[in-house]
Protein: Electron transfer flavoprotein subunit beta
Organism: Ceyx cyanopectus
Amino acid sequence: QAIDDDCNQTGQILAAMLDWPQGTFASGLSLEGDRAVVEREVDGGRERIRLRLPALLTCDLRLNQPRYATLPNIMKAKKKPLEILQLGELGELGALGAAPSRLRVLKLEEPPVRTGGQLVEDVPKLVEKLRQSGHV
């Protein structure tokens, strides 16, 4: 699940940045040679699209049956070592090393400190306070 506020943007933006074909809301997936066949549910039923690979896919809840970790397996996983790899060790991974980043950080700053709230008696007093603070 994406952290883009569930607005369905992350997959499409990433596909545009990579210049890859995209298949969204995949509820079924199969490979036919160098193509991916994506099945998705639409208002009128089901739609099948064929995409050249590499492609970016976003999935629907019906694509897979989730497996839930049991408590003993979670405890075992905590004890396993975590292997950290450098990007250069992975070799050529398609677009990972192909092009320089098109993003540049211009400025990074903390948000302003929030001030405490104030209680007001009624709506006219609220409007007056908002005008005094320059918000209205």
Summary: The helical segments are 10-18, 71-79, 123-132. The first strand starts at residue 22 and ends at 32. The mean pLDDT is 86. Residues 72 and 78 are 10 Å apart (CA to CA).
